[in-house]
């Protein structure tokens, strides 16, 4: 898939997420290696009014969204892939008055789970604000948001 097609798919996906619209998130770049989103700095996401530092929840939202949407870089067709697990290690606070970028890549795709990793940064990707690792459940291309998930659990297995 071309970079243009990946960016277009990611932009459509992002535009369907109301909380991302409110935060002003935008697709910055995308290709077969991964996806970068931008979280613009604003007063609404400041966690400490005395310092102007962005709230960690906004960074978490950026990274969860970036990892989740990075699935469009590797899947041939759109699938709903909800977050199973997300781990974020914060390295240092974001600098006030600067946008934050989130990069994520899918490093393993199985029949049921997609494994992602990435980082948040401002000026230099080599100086990350946070590192992230996430797993996302593949529900298939025919899954719909809000539709019940049914699984055959006969036989006592989990």
Automatic annotation (TrEMBL):
InterPro entries given in the database record: HotDog_dom_sf (IPR029069), PAAI_dom (IPR003736), Thioestr_dom (IPR006683)
Stretches assigned to the Thioesterase domain: 52-127
Gene3D superfamilies the record matches: Hotdog Thioesterase (3.10.129.10)
Keywords assigned: Hydrolase
Cellular component aspect of the GO annotation: cytosol
Record Pfam families: 4HBT
GO molecular function terms noted in the UniProt entry: 1,4-dihydroxy-2-naphthoyl-CoA thioesterase activity
Annotated PANTHER family: 1,4-DIHYDROXY-2-NAPHTHOYL-COA THIOESTERASE 1 (PTHR43240), BLR7284 PROTEIN (PTHR43240:SF7)
Name of the protein: Uncharacterized domain 1-containing protein
Lineage: Bacteria, Pseudomonadati, Pseudomonadota, Gammaproteobacteria, Pseudomonadales
């Amino acid at each position: 898939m071309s970079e243009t097609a990946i960016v277009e798919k990611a932009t459509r996906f992002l535009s369907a997420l109301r909380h991302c619209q409110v935060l002003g998130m935008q697709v910055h770049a995308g290709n077969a290696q991964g996806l970068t989103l931008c979280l613009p700095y604003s007063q609404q996401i400041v966690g400490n009014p005395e310092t102007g530092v962005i709230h960690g929840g906004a960074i978490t939202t950026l990274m969860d969204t970036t990892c989740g949407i990075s699935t469009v870089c590797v899947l041939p067709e759109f699938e709903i892939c909800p977050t199973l697990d997300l781990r974020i290690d914060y390295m240092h606070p974001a600098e006030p008055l600067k946008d934050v970028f989130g990069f994520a890549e899918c490093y393993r795709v199985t029949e049921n789970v997609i494994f992602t990793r990435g980082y948040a940064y401002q000026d230099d990707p080599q100086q990350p604000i946070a590192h992230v690792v996430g797993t996302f459940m593949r529900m298939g291309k025919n899954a719909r948001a809000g539709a019940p998930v049914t699984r055959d659990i006969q036989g006592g297995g989990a």
